């Protein structure tokens, strides 16, 4: 029996092809799924990154109290009678200056930790910001005196309890603990004012930097009085008027504490007195004799590389003394067709200089002495302060013959340069070497010294 039915649909040539309506719905559904997946990935990345961060649980606080961050304790603790005061009462103490200055000074730090600014404290108490800082620093200096290994004498400490004690102690703030105690004792013994304390503190701070200055070794770094005397000793040399120079030396003599310092100052006073009695012509003649006929040159960048000839000299540090000069090789010889330089003895340090005529003439017995500070050399100009120099000296000429010459001698195991006139006055007839040339390091502004700058 035959039945009528619809014939089956032929297979589509594009089996995945759908009608446009279904395709639009699928695309919307697919887009939403992609957005959900992206959001899940972002949450996963954030959670993983947060897991890698260091985590510290919040500090626990008693119930009913708000957590407050840690604040360091004050450097100067409040006196017992001020600890229970309210903020208003503390402001009244500062406004009325109740008590000694070092007792109410810590109140300023306490108010600052409570949120007060220097301006607001000044409005409430009338104490300017600069004075607030001075009181705080002076109180810290006073506490350091009490905390020192050797207890500061109570009778001397009472000197700083007066109204001007804060200004005086404030000037000692830059010194170390040991220097501060010695300087404070000197201030209290001599009843110095803030300006005197400032001069004393500056001289103590500056004294170690003047190691290369003439006469430094005669003064003691452990004595604040000697440090101040040395500062006056240096100032006397800057005075143009002989009367001013003698006045500064007289103050230095009264200030000095050690016998060696007094002896050195007395010698300088005698020399200044004798010089003041000389006539103008004699002074000019003495000045001409003090000038050493030694050239002082500054290297230029690339000068050694561009030189047609160079000189190789054994280098000796000033701290090595006479033994270093004696041990340095004396002769260098060029061997073979290539001119290989050979020394008569092994040596570890060498200086290479351009083939200047004075150096070439003395090269067979010359040595280069390394001076860490050019101020140790006897020249008047201080432009070369705190720079290293090379002193080229000829060991073949050791006899002190010229008053205007310069010579390398050994002083307490250290090499120094002295004028010939001074060596003759002290009876020294032979030195380690005669200075031929002084070489300064290169720098941008070339201000070479002339022979007149040599003292």
Automatic annotation (TrEMBL):
Keywords: Chaperone. Residues 294-443 form the Rubisco accumulation factor 1 C-terminal domain. Residues 87-145 form the Rubisco accumulation factor 1 helix turn helix domain. Residues 33-49 have a biased composition (Low complexity). Pfam families: Raf1_HTH (PF18579), Raf1_N (PF18578), RuBisCo_chap_C (PF18087). It comes from the Eukaryota. GO terms for biological process: ribulose bisphosphate carboxylase complex assembly. Residues 1-73, 269-289 are annotated as: Disordered. Residues 269-278 have a biased composition (Basic and acidic residues). Residues 164-268 form the Rubisco accumulation factor 1 alpha-helical domain. GO terms for cellular component: chloroplast. Residues 15-25 have a biased composition (Polar residues). This is Uncharacterized protein.
């Amino acid at each position: 029996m035959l039945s009528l039915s619809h014939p089956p649909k032929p297979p589509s040539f594009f089996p995945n092809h759908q009608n446009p309506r279904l395709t639009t719905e699928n695309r919307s559904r697919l887009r939403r799924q992609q957005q959900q997946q992206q959001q899940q990935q972002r949450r996963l990345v954030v959670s993983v990154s947060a897991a890698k961060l260091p985590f510290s649980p919040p500090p626990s606080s008693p119930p009913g109290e708000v957590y407050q961050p840690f604040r360091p304790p004050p450097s100067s603790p409040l006196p017992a009678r001020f600890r229970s005061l309210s903020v208003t009462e503390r402001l009244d103490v500062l406004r009325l200056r109740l008590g000694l200055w070092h007792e109410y000074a810590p109140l300023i730090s306490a108010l600052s930790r409570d949120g007060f600014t220097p301006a607001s404290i000044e409005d409430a108490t009338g104490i300017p910001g600069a004075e607030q800082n001075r009181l705080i620093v002076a109180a810290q200096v006073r506490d350091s005196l009490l905390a020192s290994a050797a207890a500061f004498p109570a009778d001397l400490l009472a000197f700083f309890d007066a109204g001007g004690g804060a200004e005086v102690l404030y000037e000692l703030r830059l010194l170390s603990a040991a220097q501060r105690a010695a300087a404070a004792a000197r201030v209290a013994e001599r009843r110095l004012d803030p300006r005197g304390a400032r001069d004393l503190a500056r001289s103590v701070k500056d004294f170690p930097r003047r190691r290369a200055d003439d006469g430094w070794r005669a003064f003691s770094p452990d004595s604040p009085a000697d440090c101040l005397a040395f500062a006056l000793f240096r100032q006397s040399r800057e005075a143009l008027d002989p009367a001013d120079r003698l006045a500064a030396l007289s103050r230095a003599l009264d200030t000095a504490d050690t016998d060696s310092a007094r002896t050195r100052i007395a010698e300088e006073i005698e020399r200044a007195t004798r010089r003041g009695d000389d006539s103008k012509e004699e002074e000019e003649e003495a000045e001409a004799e003090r000038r050493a006929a030694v050239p002082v040159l500054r290297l230029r960048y690339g000068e050694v590389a561009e030189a047609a000839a160079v000189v190789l000299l054994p280098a000796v540090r000033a701290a090595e003394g006479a033994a270093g000069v004696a041990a340095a090789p004396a002769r260098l010889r060029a061997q073979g067709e290539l001119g290989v330089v050979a020394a008569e003895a092994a040596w570890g340090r060498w200086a290479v200089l351009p083939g200047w005529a004075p150096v070439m003439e003395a090269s067979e017995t010359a040595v280069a002495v390394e001076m860490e500070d050019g101020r140790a050399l006897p020249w008047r100009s201080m432009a070369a302060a705190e720079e290293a120099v090379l002193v080229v000296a000829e060991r073949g000429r050791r006899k002190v013959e010229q008053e205007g010459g310069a010579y390398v001698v050994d002083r307490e195991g250290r090499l120094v340069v002295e004028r010939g006139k001074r060596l003759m006055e002290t009876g020294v007839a032979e030195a380690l070497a005669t200075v031929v040339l002084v070489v300064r390091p290169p720098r941008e502004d070339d201000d070479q010294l002339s022979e007149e700058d040599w003292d």
